[in-house]
Amino acid sequence: MKNTTDEKKPWGHHTCIDLYDCKPETIRDAAKIKQFVAEMCVLIDMKPFGETQVVHFGAEERVEGFSMTQLIETSLISAHFANQTNATYLDVFSCKYYDSQKAADFAKKFFGAREARVQIVSRI
Fold first, then answer.
1. Which has the least CB within 10 A, 17, 41, 76, 82?
2. Is 107 helix (H, G, I), strand (E, B) or coil?
3. Hey, how many other C-beta atoms are within 10 angstroms of the C-beta on 47?
4. Residue 120: how many CB atoms within 10 A of its CB?
5. pTM attached to this predicted model
6. Is residue 3 over pLDDT 70?
7. Which letter, b or e, does each residue of 6-17 get, where b requires 16 or more Cβ atoms within 10 Å of its Cβ?
8. CATH of region 14-112
9. What CA–CA distance (Å, rounded) separates 57 from 11?
10. Which of 104-114 are b and which e, b meaning 16 or more Cβ less than 10 Å from the residue's Cβ?
């Protein structure tokens, strides 16, 4: 296994944003989720590729909610919105750099979350 170092420029930048106690009316609204994606793309300077996909599913109450995918020219934005816990699990991956903290702050505010946990991974 190769050790990652700061000596190499990352090929990709991945931010995992977990949001807790989100506003139920926002995470259960497909139009609001699409609005979020459009605004996020502008904020972090990403160009959408195709339409935002928002699908509601979950045969089990624990995982029921919308899932979203948005291809961007440099990779993908995706999320799952868990109705039972009002949580949002958002991933932003791009081979073009963007400000992870700006993305996380925007997501927290948009979904009205009380708490956010952010993990950043550089892929080399």
1. 76
2. helix
3. 11
4. 13
5. 0.90
6. no
7. eeeeeeebbbbb
8. 3.60.90.10
9. 33
10. bebbbebbebe
